[in-house]
Amino acid sequence: MGEIIVGLDIGTTKVVSLVGSVENGLIEIVGMGKVPSHGLEKGVVVDIGETTNSIRRSIEDAETMADIKIKKVYASISGKHINSINNSGTVSINKPNREITLDDVRRVIETAQAVQIPPDVEMLHVIPRQYIVDGQEGITDPVGMTGTRLEVDVHIVTGSVTAIHNIRRCVENLGIEIEQIILQPLASSYAVLNTAERELGVALIDIGGGTSDIAIFRGGDIWFSKVLPIAGEHLTNDVTVGLKVPYEEAERIKKEEGTPIVDEITGEEQMEITLISEEHKTISRRMLAKILEPRLEELFDMAVEEIEDAGYKDLIPAGIVLTGGTAMLNSLPEYVQGRYNIPVRRSKTPQGIHGLRDIVESPIYATAIGLLKYAIESKEYREGRIGRRSFNEHKHSLFSKVLNWLERINRFFRG
Ligand SMILES: Nc1ncnc2c1ncn2[C@@H]1O[C@H](COP(=O)(O)OP(=O)(O)OP(=O)(O)O)[C@@H](O)[C@H]1O
Ligand SMILES: [Mg+2]
Asked: Whose CA is nearest to atom 21 of ligand 1?
């Protein structure tokens, strides 16, 4: 077996633990645990005990399958509390030979991190978008260049201290260490976007059960991120109410027969449903589409407005890539493409992943696989094997460290 890494995707509908064995940059999936998620609402932990239990079960399944003990994980985070800002920083290079070193890069990123954020918010990622050396823009790795002035543009992702702390607590309750917490769409992007799309400009939308996470990439890196609180569970709820069926039946109907394109279905396409009263009924597929369409319209109007407001509508020639469970809805890419006149595709199977192929191909696992890919690249970066810059070495804020200590002391005294 190669080096072991573990991705832990804590979603609203399911928790996935994925164990990867890494050799020569290739990942073989050797273990996985997928269990229903309890204790989260719209991507955020609302019940620590329930969430801890869901994580425990998924970890145990993965451990059994891989025949290992999991000690460290890369965990995902999402939720409406996530925000992002762009900032920049400047340092001067005063050495006689004026050669830029890794230390200068660290220094300039540190200055770019000096932004005012509220005390209940902490930084999750500080991602360099480009370096500027003596006015020359578009530099991806300035180490080894010479100059007198080094600037950097960074993308900063922040989250609520409480939400981040709760995720830590659920995982640490199990005696497992968190290597890093990664924003869900950033992780997913490592699984489903290709290099050309990331360079050219693309919007990734991960539509899960509780949240739809948007991330915009250009020039290889993330430029914008936003989490919207509408996703698959809302669609199912709408079907429950609209057709008077139980939740499980609404899920089935949505997955098997659902589509947002009302016009393409004639009134003759019929389907059987089972009502809450347990009676069977035949309805038209068109009726179902009429229930789903307004919610998807609301969701995508919001998403496109976010992209427009951020000023990126004309900067994403590669269009939109859809992933997450709801991306599997029949005709969804066609619907979005038709409505907004932007190229849209569903995510494809990630590259460089082996083992458990049939499972891994589903967009439901995009975040978990992305966590593994992110982990590998960030390790290679830290060990100096690759010169990329997407991996912040941001240390967690003093405030959250103090919270963590207090928490540990408290647990120690409670035994
Ligand atoms: N074939 C399908 N068609 C439509 N929707 C589907 C299909 N398969 C799964 N879904 C929906 O996908 C959603 C789950 O997606 P996913 O597993 O990506 O969510 P999650 O990661 O648990 O949640 P989140 O990321 O929002 O916290 C559910 O609402 C489910 O109904
Ligand atoms: Mg998800």
From this structure: 11
Integer Cα distance of 392 and 394 in angstroms: 5
For the chain, which domains are there?
Answer: 83-159 (3.30.1490.110), 195-347 (3.30.420.40)
Question: How many residues does this entry show for the chain?
Answer: 415
Q: pLDDT-derived band of residue 392, with 50, 70 and 90 as boundaries?
A: very low
Q: Which of 51-65, 133-147, 245-259, 346-360 has the lowest mean pLDDT?
A: 346-360
pTM of this structure: 0.90
CB of 378 shorter than 6 A to ligand 1: no
Q: Residues 107-132: what's their mean pLDDT?
A: 93
256: CB partners within 8 A, 6+ apart: none
Residue nearest to atom 4 of ligand 1 (CA): 329
How far are the Cα atoms of 132, 241, 267 from residue 234, in angstroms, in the given order?
A: 44, 11, 25
pLDDT, tens only, 343-384: 999 998 777 788 777 667 889 999 999 999 999 988 776 666
Q: Which amino acid is at 57?
A: R
Q: Is the minimum distance from the CB of 209 to ligand 1 under 6 angstroms?
A: yes
Could you identify the residue written with the tokens 């409505």?
339
> Can you tell me the distance from the alpha carbon of 120 to that of 270, in angstroms, rounded to the nearest whole number?
52
- Ligand 1 lined by 325 (C-beta under 6 Å): yes
pLDDT score at 275: 96
> Is there an atom of ligand 1 within 6 Å of 128 CB?
no
DSSP state of 356: S
SS3 264: coil
Residues 6+ apart with CB under 8 A from 241: none
pLDDT 10s digits, 172-183: 999 999 999 999
The residue written with tokens 């005390």 in the block is 119
Exposure string of 398-415, with b = 16+ CB inside 10 Å and e = fewer, is eebeebeeeeeeeeeeee
Ligand 1 close to Cβ of residue 389 (< 6 A): no
CA distance 366 to 280: 36
Nearest-ligand number for the alpha carbon of 252: 1
Which mutation among 80, 364, 367, 371 tests ligand 1's pocket best, with the greatest number of atoms within 8 A of CB?
364
Q: How confident is the model at residue 395 (pLDDT cuts 50, 70, 90)?
A: very low
| pLDDT for the residue numbered 352 | 75
Give me ligand 1 centre to Cα 194, in Å: 23
Best residue among 326, 328, 332 to mutate for probing ligand 1's pocket (most ligand atoms within 8 Å of CB) is 326
